[in-house]
Amino acid sequence: MDRDDEADEFDDVDASEQDEADEEAVEPEVTIEVSGLSLFTHVGVTAAEREVGQRLVLDLRLDLGESDATVTDRLEDTVDYAEVCDTANLVAQQRSYKTLERLCAAIADRLLDRYRAHAVWVKAAKPEPPLALPVAEVSVEVWREAA
pLDDT in tens for each of the 147 residues of the chain? Predict the structure, then answer.
């Protein structure tokens, strides 16, 4: 066997191994993120905060795992982030909350349940909270994983 034949033989082996690797390749993990969702809601420890209401800024992250949309490019094969925003807003409007912790947990639970995500992270920030000292914002983060 001359050198060219030997090289061709190795090229064939490399190509077949690559084909097998391509067939075994898994779809990439998908994470949907929404940053800076501004909502008006009634959250606060004091009755005045809950009565008057205030603006909150939410950041949301849903870890979906594998998603067919990476191959199909179809919206119905993934999570529509507009619906994610609507869901978070609905939870925030359904009732008043005393703590950002409870609001974040309620949103995380709803998103986990509705979108069958592997995990959900919710951050809620109060810009310019009603405190005696000047503070740019206060925030709470909640992380939930699917059971």
Answer: 565 555 555 555 555 555 555 555 566 799 999 999 999 998 888 887 778 888 999 999 999 988 888 888 888 888 999 999 999 999 999 998 999 999 999 999 999 999 989 999 999 999 988 889 999 999 999 999 998
Six token digits for residue 137: 């914002």
Q: Please, what are the domains in the chain?
A: 29-145 (3.30.1130.10)
CA distance 53 to 72: 43
Q: What distance in Å separates the CA atoms of residue 37 and residue 19, rounded to the nearest whole number?
A: 44
44 backbone φψ class: left, alpha, beta (φ>0; ψ -120 to 50): left
How many CB atoms are located within 10 Å of the residue 96 CB? 16
